[in-house]
């Protein structure tokens, strides 16, 4: 492909991806399965790698999420809420491990977590009191959805200790609630939600908190933006402390001492995910040591110390079809 053909292809890909992102992030109503979006994004990244002059700062390959809705008060994140790099097979996980080791010059342990398919949110606590909740938005600016988040019972309004922190997690809709909600929507002649992720996002991005209150939403907290006076050395220590504070963490996380153990963990969840009462779309792998995380740092879009293994595309499409058929 020559540069002119590449430019045309890149423009076409950008246009489709922007349209899909608008439908997904702003309208909470995607028109294509995630696998289609992921495949086009990958094509775009590969072309931009081959023709680096054609990469622009506004490319979907460089941007996080979507524009916050004007109806909400905007929240500036103290620390950006980024996306994650992806791995689609074992080899890509080993490539990630190689990059991490090259960047740290040391032995590395990982924490593996379920990748919950919901809406990324940030919760701010001052002296132990929940004061503000926001969406990720475009990574820099999110939407203030405090009132809606207060309706989620598993979000403590006061922590066990008077700490000041900004914690991050995924608000989600359990599978059962999703099926029930769509049944009601359909019987009212309304358009059903495409999947639990969009149902959770659509419920939390409502101006009336009574709607969110009725939707049986839940949350798992998995990371920290800012934690004043915290002395943890590792992500795993932080997960333990978060739990002690009363923050709901997912119990399935596991510390792995090398990438082969990570791969075993990933494989073990390909089948088992169906048994969970919430949707996951992959596994998140994070370097455990916080000093090593700092050394590795971030790209414009994602941390270099973490990646998301995405479950196989075929399965993702089948799953989406199954959901569509079952509601
Ligand atoms: P991502 O979903 O691939 O990864 C980042 C997100 O993972 C974080 O923001 C966080 O919300 C979430 N996450 C869940 N569990 C986590 C955990 N344990 N630790 C850390 N993070 C965790 O990236 P993205 O930028 O949010 O979105 C891309 C996704 O959205 C892709 O799956 C893509 O297919 C989908 N998408 C689909 C369409 C469509 O039209 N179908 C359009 C745009 C995006």
Automatic annotation (TrEMBL):
<feature type="binding site">
    <location>
        <begin position="83"/>
        <end position="84"/>
    </location>
    <ligand>
        <name>NAD(+)</name>
    </ligand>
</feature>
<protein>
    <recommendedName>
        <fullName>DNA ligase</fullName>
    </recommendedName>
</protein>
<feature type="active site" description="N6-AMP-lysine intermediate">
    <location>
        <position position="115"/>
    </location>
</feature>
<feature type="binding site">
    <location>
        <position position="170"/>
    </location>
    <ligand>
        <name>NAD(+)</name>
    </ligand>
</feature>
<feature type="binding site">
    <location>
        <position position="113"/>
    </location>
    <ligand>
        <name>NAD(+)</name>
    </ligand>
</feature>
<feature type="binding site">
    <location>
        <position position="286"/>
    </location>
    <ligand>
        <name>NAD(+)</name>
    </ligand>
</feature>
<comment type="similarity">
    <text>Belongs to the NAD-dependent DNA ligase family. LigA subfamily.</text>
</comment>
<feature type="binding site">
    <location>
        <position position="310"/>
    </location>
    <ligand>
        <name>NAD(+)</name>
    </ligand>
</feature>
<feature type="binding site">
    <location>
        <begin position="34"/>
        <end position="38"/>
    </location>
    <ligand>
        <name>NAD(+)</name>
    </ligand>
</feature>
<comment type="function">
    <text>DNA ligase that catalyzes the formation of phosphodiester linkages between 5'-phosphoryl and 3'-hydroxyl groups in double-stranded DNA using NAD as a coenzyme and as the energy source for the reaction. It is essential for DNA replication and repair of damaged DNA.</text>
</comment>
<feature type="binding site">
    <location>
        <position position="136"/>
    </location>
    <ligand>
        <name>NAD(+)</name>
    </ligand>
</feature>
């Amino acid at each position: 492909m020559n540069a002119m053909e590449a430019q045309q292809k890149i423009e076409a890909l950008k246009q489709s991806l922007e349209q899909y992102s608008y439908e997904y992030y702003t309208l909470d109503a995607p028109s294509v399965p995630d696998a289609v979006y992921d495949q086009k994004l990958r094509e775009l990244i590969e072309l931009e790698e081959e023709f680096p002059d054609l990469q622009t700062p506004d490319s979907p390959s460089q941007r996080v999420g979507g524009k916050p809705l004007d109806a909400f008060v905007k929240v500036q994140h103290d620390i950006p809420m980024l996306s994650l790099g992806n791995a689609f097979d074992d080899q890509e996980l080993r490539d990630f491990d190689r990059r991490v080791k090259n960047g740290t010059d040391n032995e590395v342990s990982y924490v593996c977590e379920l990748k919950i398919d919901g809406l990324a949110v940030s919760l701010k606590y001052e002296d132990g009191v929940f004061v503000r909740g926001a969406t990720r938005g475009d990574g820099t600016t999110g939407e203030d959805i405090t009132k809606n988040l207060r309706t989620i019972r598993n979000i403590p309004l006061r922590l066990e200790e008077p700490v000041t922190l900004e914690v991050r997690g995924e608000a989600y809709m359990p599978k059962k609630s999703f099926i029930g909600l769509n049944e009601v929507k359909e019987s009212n002649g309304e358009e059903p939600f495409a999947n639990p992720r969009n149902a959770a996002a659509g419920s939390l991005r409502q101006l009336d908190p009574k709607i969110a209150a009725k939707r049986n939403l839940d949350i798992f907290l998995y990371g920290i933006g800012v934690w004043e006076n915290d002395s943890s050395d590792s992500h795993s220590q932080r997960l333990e402390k978060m739990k002690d504070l009363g923050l709901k963490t997912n119990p399935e996380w596991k510390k792995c001492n090398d990438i082969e153990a990570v791969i075993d963990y990933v494989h073990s969840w390909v089948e088992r995910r169906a048994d969970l009462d919430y949707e996951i779309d992959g596994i998140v792998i994070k370097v455990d040591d916080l000093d090593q995380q700092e050394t590795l740092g971030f790209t414009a879009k994602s941390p270099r110390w973490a990646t998301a293994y995405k479950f196989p595309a075929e399965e993702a499409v089948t799953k989406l079809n199954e959901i569509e058929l079952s509601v």
